[in-house]
Amino acid sequence: MQITKIISGGQTGADRAALDWARERGIPHGGWCPKGRRAEDGVIPYSYNLEENNISAYAVRTEWNVRDSDATVLFSIEKRLSGGTRLTADLAERHGVPWIHITPCSHRSVRQALGAFLEVNPVFILNVAGPRASNEPAVGTFVKQCLDSVGDLFVNQRVNARARRRVA
Questions:
Q1: pTM, to two decimals
Q2: Domains of the chain
Q3: Consecutive H or E run containing 40
Q4: Which residue ranges in the chain fall short of pLDDT 70?
Q5: How far apart are CA 28 and CA 3, in angstroms?
Q6: Distance from C-alpha of 45 to C-alpha of 70, rounded to nearest angstrom
Q7: Helix or strand or coil: residue 51?
């Protein structure tokens, strides 16, 4: 397993948390966002390495991120998928992209569940998606905790850890 990049759509909540997590660790990040860098809180900051597609519809950026990834992880607090998160799962099915849905109650060990998923599905580019912050205010913290639990699966995370050990 050598995840080299996280992509997401830049919406508040799960998307932005995944991108922030990657940025904080020096892991390449990117993805597609709607024309005008549209999000529920206004314009997505340019500090996120997102490419604008030519349409302002969220569904287009969602499809392009699914299409351009090797796998998708959907994070949510709620067990039931809805809205754009449900659309992401449907698009992954349509494009034949493996996906997994992680909730606080869905797995005893997020590391075990994600690790098994990533072991079965070779992933270089991981699409991370989930609800926006206004729908699930706690989802961002949950995403970061989950990614922390599997952080060693990211190539740059391993390189950074080795470099920190050499310096110490």
A1: 0.90
A2: 5-167 (3.40.50.450)
A3: none
A4: 1, 107, 155-168
A5: 10
A6: 26
A7: strand
Residue 162 phi/psi, 5-degree rounding, is: -65, -45
3-state secondary structure of 12: coil
CA distance 118 to 110: 12
CA torsion sign, 86 to 92 to 102 to 8? negative
Query: Which residues lie below 8 Å from residue 19, measured CB to CB, with a gap of 6+?
Result: 6, 8, 10, 29, 31, 48
What confidence tens digit (pLDDT) does each residue in 62-93 have?
999 999 999 999 999 999 999 999 999 999 99
Q: What is the SS3 assignment for 149?
A: helix
Cα–Cα distance measured from residue 128 to residue 118, given in angstroms and rounded to the nearest whole number = 13
DSSP structure class, residue 96: T
Whether residue 133 contacts residue 142, with contact meaning beta carbons closer than 8 Å, is answered with: no
Q: Which residues contact 40 (CB under 8 A, 6 or more apart)?
A: 11, 12, 132, 133, 134
CB 143 within 8 A of CB 21: yes
Residue 157 carries which side chain, given as an amino acid letter? Q
